[in-house]
Write a structure and sequence with these properties.
11 helices, mainly alpha
Length: 301
């Protein structure tokens, strides 16, 4: 099963900008994206403090759990959330402080990439910890439940194929433009004409990777369907495959992901360095809100 998330149990990369999938299993966090798993939600603290509700609900989209299975998942989540609150959230403050400090300088692509990778590393720790809990649950599910899970993720795959493969290149670039513009606007406010032109130029250089991403996801579904027969050693094989998935990617697909990532980062850096005083104030407020949320979340309960 997968993590998340932010990753889901189907191991879809977390919050990847779907119109132009970038580095596998990575967020396009740009420097100004939230580091919390559910950062896209309107209230970080509200959602975080209810992860014990949202995570079972999300799992329930794929598998109908009985009462004992739900209780077992709840017990695992209690430990997971306690670990995350005590050990992970303090590191988020450090990450946010590093991002904030970079605002005092001219930001480079190298700096942005380092911050992105730091955020990804934090994400992977949560992914791996959550994966252990899901694999334990996998032993408690019936064959009927596992078949239900597989059929639902196959159906979701078909929806993704219809949604993304039917687009022509113009629609693809329009989606990419709107997605990146909205992400930046959330933290900077309204972008001016020159900043929007930077995004237009960036998305015109992107290479479509829809088919690669969908093929990668289908390969994962086929792998997990086979492993859910639960032959001896299945949990370790799933864990190793999740961790090493990037090593198995088509080199051509990986090159496209990396190229697209670089182009988006270049655009983000150019826009960040051209931000107005008003945009700078908004960005700093948004970062401070995230820091305040993390401080509140780490306070003794």
């Amino acid at each position: 099963m997968g993590s998340t998330t932010s990753k889901s149990i189907v191991f879809v990369r977390p919050l990847v900008i779907k119109p132009f999938p970038l580095r596998p299993h990575a967020k396009v966090v740009l420097l100004l994206c939230s580091v919390l798993l559910i950062s896209s939600c309107s209230s970080t603290k509200f959602v975080y403090n209810r992860l014990d509700f949202f995570l079972p609900w999300y799992l329930g989209r794929y598998v109908d759990l009985d009462r004992e299975q739900s209780r077992s998942l709840d017990r695992e989540l209690v430990g997971l959330l306690a670990w995350h609150r005590e050990e992970e959230l303090p590191t988020y403050l450090d990450l946010l402080a590093s991002a904030e400090a970079e605002l005092e300088t001219t930001i480079s692509v190298e700096t942005l990439d380092r911050l992105v990778r730091d955020f990804e590393t934090a994400w992977y720790r949560v992914r791996d910890r959550g994966l252990d809990a899901l694999l334990l649950l996998g032993d408690e599910l019936s064959n009927e439940q596992l078949d239900q899970f597989v059929q639902k993720i196959k159906k979701q795959q078909q929806k993704y194929e219809r949604k993304y493969l039917k687009r022509n290149d113009e629609e693809f670039r329009k989606d990419a433009y709107e997605n990146l513009k909205d992400t930046l606007s959330d933290y900077l406010g309204r972008l001016d004409k020159s900043q929007r032109a930077v995004i237009l130029a960036a998305v015109s250089d992107l290479v479509r990777s829809d088919q690669y991403w969908l093929a990668e996801r289908m390969a994962w579904i086929e792998f997990i369907e086979n492993e859910l027969k639960r032959e001896p050693g299945w949990q370790e094989r799933v864990r190793n495959t999740v961790i090493d998935w990037e090593e198995q990617l088509d080199p051509k697909a990986l090159a496209i992901y990396e190229s697209n990532t670089l182009r988006v980062q270049q655009a983000a850096v150019e826009i960040l360095n051209s931000r107005t005083d008003k945009q700078d104030r908004r960005l700093r407020r948004e970062l401070q809100k995230l820091k305040d949320d993390v401080v509140d979340l780490t306070a003794p309960r």
